[in-house]
Structure formats: structure tokens, C-alpha cells
Design a protein that fits this description.
The chain is mostly helical. Helices cover 59% and strands 0% of the residues. The chain has one domain (8-71): Orthogonal Bundle (434 Repressor (Amino-terminal Domain)).
Length: 80
């Protein structure tokens, strides 16, 4: 069973703090391709990357589940 995560809150926080996803990617030391793969759910975040991202974005560790582990809700489950 594959889990799909919703990174919309993370994307918003990235834009709020860094101004763009590209600037965030540079601070993380990632290429644009790596950043895209992670934010599109193609490649998982490592624990160390989550901690580094929290430090950059000033996210409390208690909010890690909200930003990194919110499951996507399919259209059929939304009643659409």
C-alpha cells in the first residue's frame, strides 16, 4: 500500500519563509529535480532532511506530522 502525502501546507510555509521553493531547495542543498521529486511524493524525505527543513522553516518538531505526514484525501473521499 502506497501512502500519498499532501505537502500543500509545507509548500505554503516554504513560500512564506524562503520566498520560493527554489530558494528553499538551495538552502537544503538539493537540485531542482530532487526538490520536485520530494514535494511531489516521488522520493521520501529522510529524517535528517525533515529536521533540517524544520530548522530552516522554523517549524516546531511537534508540527512535523502536519507538514510532512498529512495524507492526501482522494476526490471520492471528499464527496466530489
Amino acid at each position: 500500500m502506497s501512502l500519498d502525502f499532501d505537502f500543500s501546507m509545507l509548500r505554503g510555509k516554504i513560500r512564506e519563509v524562503c520566498g520560493s521553493e527554489g530558494k528553499f531547495g538551495k538552502k537544503m542543498g538539493w537540485s531542482q529535480a530532487t526538490l520536485s521529486a520530494k514535494l511531489n511524493g516521488k522520493v521520501d524525505f529522510k529524517q535528517s532532511e525533515i529536521i533540517h527543513a524544520c530548522n530552516i522553516l522554523d517549524i516546531s518538531y511537534s508540527f512535523v506530522p502536519v507538514y510532512f505526514f498529512t495524507k492526501k484525501v482522494s476526490n471520492s473521499k471528499q464527496g466530489v
